[in-house]
Amino acid sequence: MAGFDKVVSSFEEALDGLKDNMTIIAGGFGLCGIPEGSIAQIKKSGVSGLTVVSNNCGVDGFGLGILLEDRQIKKMVSSYVGENALFEQQLLAGELEVELTPQGTLAEKMRAGGAGIPAFYTATGFGTPVAEGKEIREFDGRGYVLEESITGDFAIVKAWKADRYGNCVYRDTAMNFNPMAATAGKITVVEVEEIVEPGEIPPTQIHTPGIFVNRVIKGSFEKRIERRVTRSQEQ
């Protein structure tokens, strides 16, 4: 069934259609489970004016952080931004717009967007600056904030393996934001360590069904550790 084969052979093909001023939803948490090749291709393409939705913006010189070097990102929607000095510089200089979003709310924004739900109420952020300018309602005596869902022109995702139909399996901590991001893109690109034939992944083990996936590409991954913490040797 060749018509269902979603495997592409290059990152140029995987990101075909990427243009200036698009919204990109990126999976990953810190440097764990990030689509390294797709990010590199976005940098290589030279597109600019991007809105990037991701838990964070990588670190200086790696992950989404490389897109800051040529000021390709116009706006960042994130829940954590503490590991990137260039990010801080551009934010303080007014060169980068940042929308800080509570982590669970960000995940639900992606999930709801992928499910076709335009908005939802959450107690997270009620009574804080997060709620400013947003609709507030009370349910059972508790205040809730109306949050709009998120969808993107592209979603770039890292999975452990996928079959040629785009059915994906994530591994361990790389589950993070990847499953939600995969549902929320008009075009979803999944970068994987291994491509298998249809039927090799048991249906009960599939995390993201291929219906959400447009393109699959085999990548190679450095899997850099963001911050290594070790215990000093006891004297």
TrEMBL record:
Any one Gene Ontology MF annotation carried by this entry is: CoA-transferase activity
SUPFAM superfamilies membership: NagB/RpiA/CoA transferase-like
GTP-binding among keywords: no
Q: Which PROSITE patterns match?
A: COA_TRANSF_1
Which Gene3D superfamilies does the protein's record reference? Glutaconate Coenzyme A-transferase
UniProt keywords (A-Z) are:
Transferase
Name the Pfam families on file.
CoA_trans
The record, for InterPro entries, names:
3-oxoacid_CoA-transf_A (IPR012792), CoA_trans_fam_I (IPR004165), CoA_transf_BS (IPR004163), NagB/RpiA_transferase-like (IPR037171)
Q: Which domain of life is it from?
A: Bacteria
Q: PANTHER family this protein is in?
A: ACETATE COA-TRANSFERASE SUBUNIT ALPHA, KETOACID-COENZYME A TRANSFERASE
Family statement drawn from the similarity comment of this UniProt entry: Belongs to the 3-oxoacid CoA-transferase subunit A family.
What is the protein name given in its UniProt record?
Dehydrocarnitine CoA transferase subunit A
This protein's species is Planctobacterium marinum
